[in-house]
């Protein structure tokens, strides 16, 4: 009897730790007013989710949504960027941009910039594999503002990215169906808005652990209509206070990696959160992480999904699929 009681208590404790508090991964999640959220160097900052937004700055962002840095890398200039400028045709025609190659746009998160690790990691994965136009969007002018202001300005900067890509298309003829927009955390919602600006015509939109705070019921968050194929990779969507990702279905295909809450080898939410872009970069190189479709969140939690298989991430512009999937990884690269 004593042994049975101990087993029951252990199972209950495990469920509370490993699984969601609800019977489904859901956007109905309540965040406390004061949270901690990381910058691009994985340093946590105090955030007041009820802090006032900087309205005068947001007004300027809305007037000039495309006024950011668009930095091009190709195999001809894999380490030294070329600046592409909105409405400056010469900046495009004099660059190494090749409309016959796929175009990949990488978008960082809050308190980050072009130097943040996500950018060179994904850039190098693509350029080491083949020809591509890799464009790093540096949107630091908004990203360095307080979290509430950054959230409020993300839709406008996303529209600006869409306007820039429309300009790129008009100058070079680069087709939208050869474009893949990849964003991390706040950047995931940003690329969703960029795809929406283009009428969902881009080939792929990938959200890497889309940010949760102030997004769970936000109509401007990434959604399945933002591209021909929209994918989300969830790595820190736990219902604990520290969960940084949205932890809910937002795409055509939603991958809950290792259950979508905690990652092998990670002891912090920041590590869990950042592993989303690490996993994605590895799949561009190896295309080796495969998910099984799940019929319920309990299957995700208990790792017994047995539905159709779909490769997570990768660089396939013709990829398709729908549903929620669990994908399992190892703790060390390439996972």
From TrEMBL:
One of its GO terms (biological process) is lipid catabolic process. It is found in: Secreted. One of its GO terms (cellular component) is extracellular space. The keyword Secreted applies. Residues 64-312 form the Lipase domain. Residues 1-18 form the signal peptide. GO terms for molecular function: lipase activity; serine hydrolase activity. InterPro entries: AB_hydrolase_fold (IPR029058), Lipase (IPR013818), Lipase_N (IPR033906), TAG_lipase (IPR000734). Pfam families: Lipase. Keywords: Secreted, Signal. Belongs to the AB hydrolase superfamily. Lipase family. This is Neutral lipase. It comes from Helicoverpa armigera (Cotton bollworm). The lineage of its organism: Eukaryota, Metazoa, Ecdysozoa, Arthropoda, Hexapoda. The gene is Lipn008.
